[in-house]
Amino acid sequence: MRLRVEFTTEPFDLDEAPAHALVARDVIEGASLDAVDVGPFGNTAEGGIDAVLTAVDAMLRQSLEAGATRVSLQVNVIGEPGEPREPGEAGK
Fold first, then answer.
1. What is the distance between the alpha carbons of residues 74 and 7, in angstroms, rounded to a whole number?
2. What is the number of alpha carbons within 13 Å of residue 83 lying toward its C-beta?
3. 55 φψ region: left (φ > 0), alpha (ψ -120 to 50), beta (else)
């Protein structure tokens, strides 16, 4: 099963990325995930179920330890290995 995770950590700081945001980014970028996209207002990554759930666990624990007071998280099932990621994405 493939999953897509989207998350943000708070509190926000528009002038400089807070420690908890940097930690969350490092965890996700260092995990065995595909299609990682990190940004100032949200982060997205895709991968197999075990890789995503392991990365989410580490991200939650480490970003909370680094000062996050809220983590908004959404996880979507996007398919089985070898299937198109979403309807209409065959051959992409």
1. 6
2. 13
3. alpha
**Cα–Cα nearest to 19, from 57, 72, 53, 69:** 69
The DSSP-derived string for 30-83 is HSS-EEEEE-SS-EEEEEEHHHHHHHHHHHHHHHHHTT-SEEEEEEEEEE-TTS
The C-alpha atoms of residue 41 and residue 43 are separated, in whole angstroms, by 7
pLDDT, tens only, 53-91 = 999 999 999 999 999 999 999 999 998 756 655 554 544
Helix, strand or coil for residue 5? strand
pTM above 0.70, yes or no: yes
pLDDT-above-90 percentage for the chain? 71
What DSSP character marks residue 87?
Answer: T
**Rounded Cα–Cα distance for residues 71 and 64 (Å):** 8
